[in-house]
Sequence to fold (109 residues):
Amino acid sequence: MSNNPGKKGKPAPWVKRERDDRDRALDGYKQAHHPAYRAWREARSEVGRKARAEAEALFPGLSEISQSMKHADKAVSAWDKANKNPMTWEESQALEAEFAKSYVPIDRS
Fold:
């Protein structure tokens, strides 16, 4: 493993990997313990997949990638406005506190 302490204020690679691992585990925990949130995330992912496929059909080729991405982002943003996240901030904080009590970081040594 590299002994890179991070550059220009960025975290070292292993610190970033630990944060990413924890974030993925926390999201999985929230989905497992809040069924409405899991259903909302699945629906949002499906909308995103359909929007990207539609955008790629409308704007084919490498030269129009930014237009394609903007089109898909607008579609997902419109869906987000129409379908609010069912998990409140308080519920999220409570689940995160429960998660923190039981989370054990992955040992990569």
Q: What stands out?
A: Residues 35-58 form the longest helix (24 residues). Residues 35 and 86 are 10 Å apart (CA to CA). The chain has a mean pLDDT of 92.
